[in-house]
Amino acid sequence: MSSDSQKPSTGRGPRAARRADTRPLIQFEQISKRFGDVLAVDRLSLEIHEGEFFALLGPSGCGKTTLLRMLAGFESPSEGRLVLDGKDISAVPPHRRPVNMMFQSYALFPHLTVAGNIGFGLRQEGLGRDEIAARVADILALVRLTGFGARKPEQLSGGQRQRVALARALVKRPRVLLLDEPMAALDKKLREETQFELMELQRRLGTTFVIVTHDQDEAMVVADRIGVMNEGRLAQVATPAEIYERPNSRWVADFIGDVNLLEARLVGFEAGGALIDCMRSRLRVAHAPDAKPGDTVWVALRPEKVALARSTPEGADNVMSGTIFDIGFLGDMSIYKIGLDDGTIMKAAAANIARRVEQPFAIDEKVWLSWTADCAVVLTA
Amino acid sequence: MSTMPIIRALSARLIMLVPYAWLLVFFLVPFIIVLKISLSQTALAQPPYTPVLDVAAGWAGVGTFLAGLSLDAYALLWSDWLYLLSYLKSLEIAAVSTALLLLFGFPIAYGIARAPRRWQGILALLVILPFWTSFLIRIYAWINILQHDGLLNQLLLALGFVRTPVTWLSTDTAIYIGIVYSYLPFMVLPVYATLEKMDESLLEAAADLGCPRWKAFWLVTLPLALPGVIAGSLLCFIPIVGEFVIPDLLGGSESLMIGQTLWTEFFGNKDWPVASAIAVVLLCVLVAPMVFYEHMQKRELEAH
After folding, report:
1. What domains lie within chain A, and their CATH numbers?
2. Could you report the predicted ipTM of this complex, rounded to two decimals?
3. Considering the entire predicted model, what is its pTM?
4. Is residue B84, in this structure, part of any structural domain at all?
5. pLDDT for B203-234, tens place per residue?
6. At what angle do helices B151-159 and B135-146 cross, to 10 degrees?
7. How many angstroms away from the CA of A280 is the closest CA of chain B?
């Protein structure tokens, strides 16, 4: 299942408009973090806006968790400024920050009941017993755990524990909710349900959510914007659709979803696009890359944008031919691996829109691949 | 073919029996013998008490034996303040020592649990390292340290803390020093075991929820370490009540712990029945905390 096939239409309106009229709630300004000789975060700048659901996505060790822990106050930046709500919070200890975190391990206190866990933060604020009880009851209802207040964490299922952890972090009404791989411990089905619940919750509360995840599907589903991280830097910050359809580098294109990456040479520009030489073929793309004719560029083409045919397609912008050597049946779609005539391997994905057991194409079959000019992205980095 | 499962089931049962057999042979049988002796009277004979069960005389012998049993030894324990004071002294020393052990042991255990993981094993080993030397030799060494012109007084005089040597030896202070020194690993290791299991992120969660570090210690660390604290306290308290060697070598003679009283009755007065009665009562006194410990362990097991 490719990431964009399950992306919901959230109807949250264009983010760009909202971004323009709100000042950034969180500002990372040239932040670096060193652990001994290791540079975990490298001169990183990032702005996150009020009410945004922002995802930090990247492979393990890319520095995304360090960034989140800096926001929570568990790590302090080696260099740079961390600003929350216009104030530098780099030196503010975690217990004085108006942010709350949901831990990957949930970190529920095993000696306290569910209500005790959720009320823990409110007691630190010195609230009265009645108010604490009322707010705990409200938040329990919000996460659909009414009646579970007297249970101990060990008496709950994984999904229930996850909701207690969420309630405990939300009950303090933080300016920012930090979520560290919040669904890593859930099974696939529960994870998908929870993702939608989380989005629903964020929309209702309007709280700024910052989630750290290595699961790109999760980031794509829940987030308004994604910061893709690699080796301590932000590779790209954009909406899920932009990141998927307009990656700014080979690394991002390859990290997010499945992609065919073809090395090519820029030949020249034409009206509204460019011509590219790639594997003895002349390709057309519908945008002008930031490069000079003669430069080496890379063509990134998502498998689902490649159409397969048994005969030469009429009027297609780009055509190549090859032989199918492998077919992966995924249920909703099939992935075809095609060896081009020059030996390059291309992947094409076709949705199985008709209900039939026989595949439309067979292994060793000679096929034509085609795609329109606006389907491929030309990358220069 | 069908005999295999039976043999396997039987051997499983047999393995289950081993601890019970052990307790039967090395605890219950000796205890019944002690109980029997405690119900006898002292006598100038071999063995030094009557009645003696004469199995050769058959049922008549058993009858004579049962008729000869009495509670005289227990009555003596009750009538003489010496014994009651001994028990109280032992409980006092054990209670104060356990509190001191907690005071010293908890920070040590906490320090080890918070040390880098590769150091933890070595630090825990250092705690039990003194055990590699004979217990008696270590207590004798303390006599040297604590005596009038011993190391401790020399040090205090040299540093100018005191002008004349302090009397350490033959005081309760010396007993406490000896006990805390000897029992420290029994406190440190169980507490360390619970602290080491504790998820570091719980403290981060506490901080995240607005709880400063010092407060998180009381609200999170200590409650979670409680099973270890209880286990360590009982592991120390119970044997300290019956401690004999340390008070005998380091303590004074003005008030005796129950172990010393028992030793005197047995070896000094050759009064086996009273010595046995002391042991039986001591056991009854100690059953209470042991039952409590058992209860706690059961709760712990059910919790997981």
Report:
1. 3-98+174-253 (3.40.50.300), 258-379 (2.40.50.140)
2. 0.82
3. 0.80
4. yes
5. 999 999 999 999 999 999 999 999 899 989 99
6. 40
7. 57
